[in-house]
Amino acid sequence: MEFDLIHRHFKSPFAALVKANRDSVLTGIGDDCAALAPMPGHGLYVSTDTLVEGVHFFSDDPAPAVGWKSLACNLSDLAACGAQPIGFTLNLSLPLIDESWVAGFSAGLLEIASTFNCPLVGGDTTSAGANTAKTISITVFGEAPLQHHGFHRALAKAGDDVWVSGTPGLARLGLLLEYQRLGSLSRFYSSSEILSVLELLSVMPQSLKQLAVAALRQPFPRVNLGQSLRGKANACVDLSDGLSGDLAHITTASGLSAVLAVHALQSVWLKRWPELSQLPGSVTFLDTLLNITLQGGDDFELCFTAEPTHLDAIQSINTALCRIGQLEAGEGLWLSQPNHSRQRVLGVSYKHFAEPTL
Amino acid sequence: MEFDLIHRHFKSPFAALVKANRDSVLTGIGDDCAALAPMPGHGLYVSTDTLVEGVHFFSDDPAPAVGWKSLACNLSDLAACGAQPIGFTLNLSLPLIDESWVAGFSAGLLEIASTFNCPLVGGDTTSAGANTAKTISITVFGEAPLQHHGFHRALAKAGDDVWVSGTPGLARLGLLLEYQRLGSLSRFYSSSEILSVLELLSVMPQSLKQLAVAALRQPFPRVNLGQSLRGKANACVDLSDGLSGDLAHITTASGLSAVLAVHALQSVWLKRWPELSQLPGSVTFLDTLLNITLQGGDDFELCFTAEPTHLDAIQSINTALCRIGQLEAGEGLWLSQPNHSRQRVLGVSYKHFAEPTL
């Protein structure tokens, strides 16, 4: 049963992708180990993430979206190190063998694996018994030249610009829309905060709502961007826990402070959705968005620091990258207003342990 | 909370082991990815296994034993491919943060990781909410020279001797003793079989009982043996699912049949415990042991095939290796009696899906 299931939904659908990578995958699924041949002169990068039903995804999320996201959050870690994906392993622990769910999960996984040319090379599938939560662990492997420094968090320098890709906070907006749909927003926000959030959600353009839910369900890891930043960025993280929390990993490890411009953070949204500044109550909405931008996790965008001399080179990679602030001597995360007044941002990262389950 | 827990029980206790391997571990726990530097001219071997509480270990198993076994079963896969461990990642999903359990688990993990010089390089810890089962996934990395063929299952040849290390079935005997202790042997055996098992357990020497439970709880992966077999063995598997099932992986992949000598299989036990042949009813006992030897999983011994010309070289590696049969043209698994009569062994491998939970 186990062998059949693995063959039908994993070995067979992924066979073409493994074959297309036969130079790097010496042995795939089916032996005691997979065997890979990393490129000579390259370091091996490894990252692993676990997704638990009810904690990291909703039970009624479409199975292909769960498959996509399981690999996406791991590829995002490779992206944050500037590594090229070469393969991954999958541990799937299921309460029962729900074959239609497995088929959907596998289809989503194959879609993202094919998009990033990252073959499935091994895994373990377990039936954990009724009443358990679906648990998915993926470990992904990548490579980068040994001379690349991997964008370690401690490599940021005072004077570096701070950059972000995409729209940090967009996935959190998607999560809030999902909570609203399920009637459980009040478990997430205090009564003093919830009104402004509800107002924001009620006036938000429909196109933005759809993109927010898509950002939550099917994040697009910035794998190509990460590799393009080799030789340009100093430190880089992916925004899995939220901008303020993840940027703090860099400032803490590098012994620096970050000063982010409120105007720049708002422009991340306004550049894509200029109509947000025209809505009634837009000042309040932009404040609410600012908090979502700082706190929101699960974006899987990149936040990186680079010396100002690289500005043109970075903008030529991708015009949608936004420079949101600078690093300075000192510690902590600060917001600066257009009038140059500063306000310290305190403890607002996304913590899976601290948060209510979905 | 999550960061503190990881630091206290994983990053800090494993720091010395990571440092001792600084040539191969460029970046350990704490960045988006770990970075490893495999030796030039070597292939990278990867294996992953999941252990679920109540399926793969008992809820009341000592936490250090669970930590040991979680890595042992992965190292055993590297052993079966003849690879040298270089590091591993850990995914730990817990119902609640039971810190004393985590501390014990980490201690057992560190003990085996130190024994095999295999540093923890990354991971993910998740609180999955009350009423969930502890779920542990480990992915282990190893290396072997590119010219080593990895003992693929399809590489066995007709005429090869079949060898095993240790005492296959010993861990199954340990599992039966645990079931007996919990009063649940009847969930595992039919009423027609249970009497002979109970009789065997009742007369078994105490020293054998203790070793059987130890084999179940703290199996010793044959990592050094696996590497010593490079250039000698053709195909190799580890006995995670049981001798008959795992050997079938080799015979099926290689398009051959295996003929095992009943006398040789029994001598695997009698060489270590000669008193088993002196017990009242020893003929029945030896038959029961034979079934346990063929069916028993979780042994993490190696079963390998090698051309007869390598006999002396293999015996000089380790005198406790037993030659139990040969491969022939044909298909299936056969037992041969001293009088050369043969009997086919049908479908008796250990399947996690098919088995009752503990």
TrEMBL record, chains A, B:
InterPro entries: PurM-like_C_sf (IPR036676), PurM-like_N (IPR016188), PurM-like_N_sf (IPR036921), ThiL-like (IPR006283). Mg(2+) 2 binds at residues 49, 77. It catalyses: thiamine phosphate + ATP = thiamine diphosphate + ADP. The lineage of its organism: Bacteria, Pseudomonadati, Pseudomonadota, Betaproteobacteria, Burkholderiales. HAMAP family: TMP_kinase. Belongs to the thiamine-monophosphate kinase family. Mg(2+) 4 binds at residues 32, 47, 77. Mg(2+) 3 binds at residues 32, 77, 238. NCBIfam families: thiL. Residues 30-143 form the PurM-like N-terminal domain. It is an enzyme of class 2 (transferase). This is Thiamine-monophosphate kinase. Pathway: Cofactor biosynthesis; thiamine diphosphate biosynthesis; thiamine diphosphate from thiamine phosphate: step 1/1. It comes from Limnobacter parvus.
